[in-house]
Every structure is written in structure tokens, then in C-alpha cells.
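Inputs:
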Amino acid sequence: MDLFLQLLANGLVNGTFYALSALGLTLVFGLMRVVNFAHGEFYVIGGLAGWALTNAVGLHFFLALPIVILGMGVFGLLIDRFLIERVRDQGPETGILLTIGLSIFIVNTALLVVGTAPLKVVSPFLNRPIFIGPVVVTQARLFTVALCAVLILAVHLLVQRTTLGRAMRATFQDATAARLVGIRTRHVYGLTFALGSALAGTAGMLLGSIYVAQATIGGIVSLKAFVVVILGGMGSFAGAIVGGLVLGLVEAIWGGYGPSGYVDAVGFALVIVMLLVRPYGLFSKQVERA
Amino acid sequence: MAPVLELKGVEAAYGKAKALHGIDLRVEPGEVVALLGANGAGKTTTFRVISGLMRPSAGEVRFDGASIAGCSADAVLRAGLAHCPEERHVWPEMTVEENLRLGAYLVSQRIEIERRMERIYLRFPRLKERRRQSAGTLSGGEQQMLAIGRALMSAPRLLLLDEPSLGLSPRMAKEVLAVIRELQGQGITVLLVEQNVHNALSVASRAYVFETGRVVAENTSQALLDSPDLLKAYLGG
Ligand SMILES: Nc1ncnc2c1ncn2[C@@H]1O[C@H](COP(=O)(O)OP(=O)(O)OP(=O)(O)O)[C@@H](O)[C@H]1O
Ligand SMILES: [Mg+2]
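Outputs:
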């Protein structure tokens, strides 16, 4: 029983991390409908930048974090303006090819600069264990989970409650209508992609302090983020959280009791089942009328 | 009188395919003017150029005397010209209320937005009943009213209405005509594209007939109604 509770706790913690890793993709893929295969690489850049600033430069974690967030935002804005904008409205395939190319470019640039070594972001959070009943969690993980929750809530409120959020939803549901009410859709696309990149980078840096930052982990991060977004129902934040938690829990429990070699496959099996049973995801609000 | 809207030699193209070959038209303040013509004649394209969705490749577009050719859509809307597009384009996953509010996206004073919302709800009580419902679940007629209401939320002086009765029952189409007459009564100038020629000419004082990207005729509604042969010749019956 104690093992099960521990696995549950691990699953919830990892699930929150998955939700955070997928948050940027929820915006970019779920809402904006750009199939961004470079999402994981944006995460990697965030992690590596976080490592460089906290380790090589020696900045404090909370000084480095806003720099990474801002830097990744600007990076995303430029990527949208100079690359994504050129393939907008040309169907998903060109976007897929573009972002695959971008991801290959980023991985290899990162390999050239920092090599293959796993690098740790220096964080002020301690790895001291905290006991909650029979369950053990490190202080660092607990803090990061709290930070994830705050970030997810903030993005949710941004999209649902603010003028920018309304402009975003309007633009992605019907760009023509958005332009006709005076929304500058070009800025909305740019800002959304910037926000998505900033969130990916933030996730990379936060989790780079728990796990490691490494040039080559982008691929698996992308795949799992897609799993989470699809599980949750494209563009739904509640869905992304639930998708992340489900993935984390299933992996943890599978890892505890099942053959461990298959842990990474479990998520993809889930997606296959999901697409067969509820093709619009757990939380989608599909409108009935065509 | 100075025209509220004037197009001179407007040309526009989709890629290499030219859709407008020099459109000239004038709309006086307070008029309702209809654009008639077969499918693909360039009526919607003309609207898209006027409202800034598309850049003309040549020619002049003047709104209240100021050139708006090539201006962005938000600049044109801010100047007081709203475009209610073909096929409604409501945001299906947003509520009726959110759709309407976004119509006043460029308005910052809350009180003003509330005042306009109330006016719209007063005119379209069905929308008020359904204000919490997502727009995608409305009937075609209700969606059309929502699209018109949304365009009116910007308090335009000139409204472009593209096929507002497309796919509607005759009764709903009559309702749309009634709304257009009311708008005219409020001093709003209306430029209307309409497939149903008789409906169009019953509200419009004048009409332009489009054919493959050109204006081939311009006359008062009365004159056009009096010579059905002329209409038939242009519109193919
Ligand atoms: N998005 C587009 N891409 C390419 N060509 C287009 C596009 N939209 C319209 N066209 C072409 O431009 C020409 C004019 O089309 P437009 O939509 O303006 O006609 P219309 O008079 O509004 O027709 P309808 O009565 O069918 O709405 C047509 O030949 C059409 O094929
Ligand atoms: Mg048309």
C-alpha cells in the first residue's frame, strides 16, 4: 500500500511536470494549430540557457529565470515573424516540415555548443526529503509543482479572461472575423507563439533543475507534450492538466508494477486508445452544429 | 453632395488571377445601394478591398474623402466602416455575448460597450435569450443576426453586408430586410450584396451590376425593376 501511495505521489508530481512541459504546446498546437515539432527543442534551449546563466555565469536562479522567459519570448516572436508566418494558412504539412527542420537545426547547434553532457541548472531548492505520511517528496519537487500550478493558472486566466486572450481565441477560431472587428491578427499570432516558446523554455529551465538539461532530450519532450495535448483535448487547459496527470500516473504505476522497459510506450498507447474512443480528447467542447 | 464611399478604377487579384478589373462606384450618405451579379463576379472581393482585408493592386478607395486603399482592417473599422462578411463568420466556440462584445474590440469605454450591447439585445431579443450559448449552436438565421449585431457593435457609419439572407427562410430574409431599413432610418449607409434581386431592389435605392470583375450597369432600383429584360440580360434570369 505504501508503495502504491508513493507511486501515486510520484505520478502526480511527474504529471504536473508533464502538464507544464505541454503548456506552451497547448497554446501553439492546441489553439494556434501549428504542429510545432520544435517544441521540445525550445524546452532544451530554456534548460541550456538556464544552466549557462546559473552555472557558467553564476546568476541566482530567480534572476536567471526572467531572463530565460524574456529571451525565449523574443526568440519565439522572431521565429514566428520570419519563419512560421511564411507558411501560415498553407495547411499543416508545411508547418510540420518547417518545425522539424528547425528542431534538427537547434539540436545540432546545441550539440556543437555544449556537447552531449547532461547539465544541471543550479537552483536554490533543496533536495531535502519531506515526509507526508508514508510518502516522500523532495522540497525541490514540491516547490516546482507549486510553481507549475501558478504558471498553468496564470496562462489559463490570460486566455479566458483578458482582452489579449479573447483576441487569441477569436483569431484562431476565425481569423477573418477577428480582422473584421479590428484585431491585429499578425500581432496575436506572434505573441501567442512567443508565449508558447517562453513557456517551453520556462519548463526546460525549471525541470532542468530537477532532472537535467541536455541537447538531445527535445524529441521525447515533444512527443510527450503532444501526448498530453491530445489526451486533454486540443487547446483546453483543464485538459492539459488532466492529460499530464494521467500520463504521469499511468507511467508511475506502470513503472512500479509493470515491465519497466515499456514506460515511455505507455503514453502513446494511451493516445491511440484515446483517439479511438474520444477523438476530441477528454475535455474538448466540440460544437454540435457544423 | 460628397459621396461617403467612392471607388475609382479598383483592381485586385488573388495571386496571379485578377478578380477585379477596374471598379468604379459611389455611395452617397444615407443610401442603401445593392451590388448584384452572378457567382464569382467580384462582389465579395470588392467588399474585401473596401474593408482592408485585401490590398487593391490599383485604384482608389475613398471613405469620407480620405483614402483608405491599402489601409489595415482595424484602421478602416476605426474610421467607421464595418464589414459583415459572407457566411457570417461568427466564432462558433464563443458565446453569443462574447461574439457581440468582440464586435466592440476597438472601443475602450465599458459603459459605451454596455450601452451598445443593450441596444443590440433590444433589437434582437433572441440573442439575449441565447447570450450564454455558444454561437455554433445557433440556427442560421440567429447566426446572421449575431453577425449583423457584432458588426453594429462598432457603431459604423457605413455597413457592408455580404449576402445576409444566404440560406435563410423567406421569413428570416424579410427580417433581414427590415433590419436594413431600420439601419437606414438611423442614418447608417448600407452597401448590400444580395442574390435575391427582388429583395435587394426592395430596400436599395440604386444598384450596380457586376460581371467578371467589372461594373456593367448602374441604375436606380425603380429603373431596373421596370425593365426586367435588362436585369435578365445581366443576371441570366
Ligand atoms: N480566396 C480566393 N483565392 C483565389 N481566387 C478567389 C478567392 N476568392 C475569390 N476568388 C476568385 O475571385 C473571383 C471573384 O470572386 P468573389 O468571391 O469576389 O465573387 P462574388 O461576386 O462574391 O461571388 P458569389 O456570389 O459566389 O459570392 C472569382 O473568380 C473567384 O474564383
Ligand atoms: Mg460573394
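Remarks. Chain B has ten helices and ten strands. The CA atoms of residues 8 and 24 of chain B lie 5 Å apart.
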